[in-house]
UniProtKB/TrEMBL annotation:
Keywords: Hydrolase, Protease, Thiol protease, Ubl conjugation pathway. Hydrolase that can specifically remove 'Lys-48'-linked conjugated ubiquitin from proteins. Has exodeubiquitinase activity and has a preference for long polyubiquitin chains. May play a regulatory role at the level of protein turnover. This is Ubiquitin carboxyl-terminal hydrolase. It comes from Lipotes vexillifer (Yangtze river dolphin). One of its GO terms (biological process) is protein K48-linked deubiquitination. Residues 282-325 are annotated as: Disordered. One of its GO terms (molecular function) is K48-linked deubiquitinase activity.
Length: 325
């Protein structure tokens, strides 16, 4: 329903703040019944009508959840169930990111093209087998489920980023939850629907860039949100557009570094990395400033406030250096 609202296929009165699940189901039923088959052949029309009947049968269950069964071979691979017909009829892509890494051939062989339910049955059967090869295969499959309990792998995340189209609205399935997902400037975002953020007007999207749940919140324009933890100014952002663009640029760079770490930052501690980034930012700031001749007092040249003598390091003086007096 969130996707249908964002696509303007369903509209609500401007003053409406609360909507019941029955009203949502009524809107969804109207959308399903308004769909017309694109093919004119009798066979395809019968198949279309069967899909509509399946979707209308599933409709009452939507308030409590959907039954979908993932396959580990692709981000769009699900075992077909009547519930899937709802997505097909509405033309809404359904994705997941629970994939087997092709660089683990043992896991690929053990999991194969099975769905989740089939894989669980296979594990139970293999563990009670007298064949040591089957027992080993069952243990490998069980280990895969245990190590990917978050139901999102890095290979799955990469495939998901590739499969999703720019600006496309889709549904992302993970841990029995369905989220509204979109792709903006090459990055994936999930619509924030948790009631805890109801009063956070600047929190609209949540980034999806790793499997550990470490994400960032953004506003409706996908700018990094600063509304959390701001005390009295909570929910507002008064920075200039230039400063906001710089923050957004830093955020995108951070995402790129996290997804593809460069050799220059490998092996650095958090403190060393912070110092390196601070030094780079200082150099960029100095390069952007006009070169000016400054009259420096002897006392100013030797000042090194806030650092013990053992930590002071001499470095060549430049005309653009800034000195504290």
């Amino acid at each position: 329903m969130n996707i249908l609202f964002l696509q303007w296929k369903v509209k609500l009165p401007l003053q409406k703040e609360v909507i019941t699940s029955d009203e949502l189901m009524a809107h969804l039923g109207d959308c399903l019944l308004s769909i017309k088959p694109q093919e004119k052949s009798e066979g395809l029309q019968l198949n279309f009508q069967q899909n509509v009947d399946d979707a209308m049968t599933v409709l009452p269950k939507l308030a409590t959840g959907l039954d979908v069964n993932v396959r580990f071979t692709g981000v769009s691979d699900f075992e077909y169930t009547p519930e899937c017909s709802v997505f097909d009829l509405l033309g809404i892509p359904l994705y997941h990111g629970w994939l087997v890494d092709p660089q683990s051939p043992e896991a690929v062989s053990a999991v194969g093209k099975l769905s989740y339910n089939q894989l669980v049955e296979k594990i139970i059967t293999c563990k009670h087998s007298s064949d040591t090869n089957l027992v080993t295969e069952g243990l490998i499959a069980e280990q895969f489920l245990e190590t990917t309990a978050a139901q999102l792998t890095y290979h799955g995340l990469c495939e998901l980023t590739t499969a999703a189209k720019e600006g496309e609205l889709s549904v992302f399935f993970r841990n029995n939850h369905f989220s509204t997902m979109t792709k903006h400037k090459g990055h994936l975002y999930l619509l924030v629907t948790d009631q805890g953020f109801l009063q956070e007007e600047q929190v609209v999207w949540e980034s999806l860039h790793n499997v550990d749940g470490d994400s960032c919140f953004c506003d409706s324009d996908f700018h990094l949100s600063h509304s959390l933890g701001k005390g009295p100014r909570q929910g507002t952002w008064s920075g200039s557009p230039e400063k906001q663009r710089q923050v957004d640029q830093d955020y995108l760079i951070a995402l790129s570094l996290q997804q593809q770490p460069s050799q220059g930052t490998l092996g650095l501690s958090d403190l060393e990395l912070a110092q390196q980034l601070q030094q780079e930012e200082y150099q960029q700031h100095q390069a952007a400033q006009p070169v000016a001749t400054r009259a420096l007092s002897p006392q100013g040249r030797g000042a090194a406030f806030g650092r013990p003598a053992a930590e002071r390091r001499q470095r060549p003086k430049q005309e653009s250096d800034c000195v504290l007096l």
